[in-house]
């Protein structure tokens, strides 16, 4: 132990000044560096290495987020194409384009893809890109976990769609109710594919949620106290908490399902003391918060866009934050309204009716605050704001049918009809996709350094808005007429042919609007007008750095004095100095006040998260066929995790 | 944008322990989500027990002794766990190494006894829903136990290498202590559910 004593004597004991610590190896600081040498140092420290291994090892939140965004967009296309295929089949009575078995797989894959592979990943990906920039830090917390989450997500999505190509995709609806999905009525591997694909994607989603929470709580720029956090970041924080408490429910559900199917447990088997409705309770305990996991980030995007284009801080900041938190809590008290048709006790149903109506209050409060912001501001109508207007109209319409559906008698009448399909597409597309599209036009310049075409953008908006309403508004009517969802065709005599043809025409227009959007994305990424740092003159920190941001985000960490820091300090940005430039150093601050507290090192690139994801993915895949997968997979997973966490001697590991 | 230095952070420490460290918050978040999983599994057990006219579905209650021994071992391990925490905070290498060895052994011991818990349940997972839930609850906790014991052992080896003399490593020891508390705390309600709830009648 003499070496320990020597170290103790030799070292100053680093910052704590005590104990058996190796002497602190200091490096060059940014304090006295001029701008160009500072950039050289930081770029060398933070850049992702060139080459294939470098790319696969990247832990840069912006690179990981870009991969997420592109992958989620690809899944959006697959989900959209499956919808178009279904609409063509339904465009007239008794069409023979798609048979019932394929149709079942199509609507299941459409739902699963849109919910688990598109909506949740894309809102989280947007957060992965923007949250570290908006809070003024250099990387997301736990960057390797973040990289790992992407590989898990990618393999889960590929797994689902490869199954579809092999004609073994899940075919029991996106919520995969038992007993239809259980061992007795769900032969083959289709429901197992559903179960394990859910478990994977939720692992990835939970990992991102944890990284986001810690980034927001501990890595905010000095001075960004709780009342100066941008509303978008608040929304992502609340969303991440909702994920932490909701996603385990669906993982439990899918795990119970695969246990019943694979090893013969009886959790959902009423013949042996299990219960079928239990599945629905567990699923919707996740499933309703899921809606808000998709919606809350969208409200954050709307707040950012409205603030920038109304050119004033958002009206009622405190009320907005409280509304976000209230929605987060209330979202856990609504799940039974998905189960009104299951014959639950009346008192219980009344409680959930009341809570379903209650959640309209904080949501309404947000809408009125946005309107007040626009009213008092000097709004400039550009494409992002157009999509926000589309959001208002569509989401409010979807909210109204939501209040209707919260009432048990009406719900019983329209249960499992196209009325419900219309309702949730208004809420999800109106509440989340329109803000996302607006957000794309708004933040595209930051990500690529180029503006999107405004002319194509306006065409895109009007086509999407009209196409969407043409496709989904008539579904209310055909639903009230009694057309059930999830049927692959209908007889001529029912007279639903014309209206369905109209719906399909609307769907085609909506689809074309996305083709236009894709053209705009591709064209603008290479030919768009250069954007500059802050094309919209917006006030939050992501606009303080170049477009696209350098690998280290900020040459010096900003010091925040106002909720819209760039509006408060229009000429020069107050910054902090004193960080090392030869190691990945960033500032850890206190939770409430964001006082700078620690100069922490951020993890360096590593290939091990990819290996760990491969080991986890292979285990899940094998587990569809044999429970022994868990035993055989444990070794490789343990080895890859040790490789991931074992220090390699970088300053980031050792100090 | 032009920059104007207003704060100097060069004197800040390079690591913090407990709530000052992001890893502590990450650990807390993982506890929250895993705790939710435990709560939902326990809720499922109670839900099925409540629906069933007779619980535990016509089989004798489990033999509680292996479970009780595990409980006592886990509770006893909390004391050295917190002594270890104190040494980790002081960054004292020798006692931390000893503490980690002790905690590895105190992790392996309940795992050995856990092996005898499964047969003591007196029922298989595929007999009925009651049996399924007992195996699920016990399996869920065993997974956590194995994971944390594995983690403790890797950390023990790490603290015997040159990489150990770092504030971050001592912080890792503290977070490991924190997580072990969680593993112990989650066991108590599961122990009561598995072994004592079937005896309530």
Textual characterization of the structure:
The complex is a heterodimer of chains A (655) and B (201). Chain A has a two-stranded antiparallel sheet. Chain A has a two-stranded antiparallel sheet with strand order 3-4. The longest helix of chain A is centred in the first third of the chain and has 35 residues, at 100-134. The two termini of chain A are 21 Å apart. In chain A, β3 (585-589) and β4 (596-601) form a beta hairpin. Chain A has helices at 2-10, 35-46, 51-57, 61-90, 100-134, 143-165, 190-218, 231-262, 277-310, 317-330, 346-358, 360-376, 383-405, 408-414, 418-448, 454-480, 497-527, 565-568, 608-623, 629-645, 651-654, and strands spanning 557-558, 572-577, 585-589, 596-601. Residues 1-16 of chain A have low confidence and may be disordered. Chain A is globular, with a radius of gyration of 26 Å. With 655 residues, chain A is mostly helical. Chain A has two domains: 53-527, Cytochrome C Oxidase, Chain A; 608-654, no CATH class. The longest helix of chain B is centred in the last third of the chain and has 31 residues, at 129-159. Chain B starts with a strand and ends in a 5-residue tail after the last helix. With 201 residues, chain B is mainly alpha-helical. Chain B has a single domain (33-199), classed as Up-down Bundle (Four Helix Bundle (Hemerythrin (Met), subunit A)). Chain B is built from five helices and one strand; from the N terminus they run βααααα. Chain B is elongated. In chain B, α2 runs antiparallel to α3, α2 (65-89) runs antiparallel to α5 and α3 (93-120) runs antiparallel to α4 (129-159). At the A-B interface, α7, α8, α9, β2 and β4 of A face β1, α1, α4 and α5 of B.
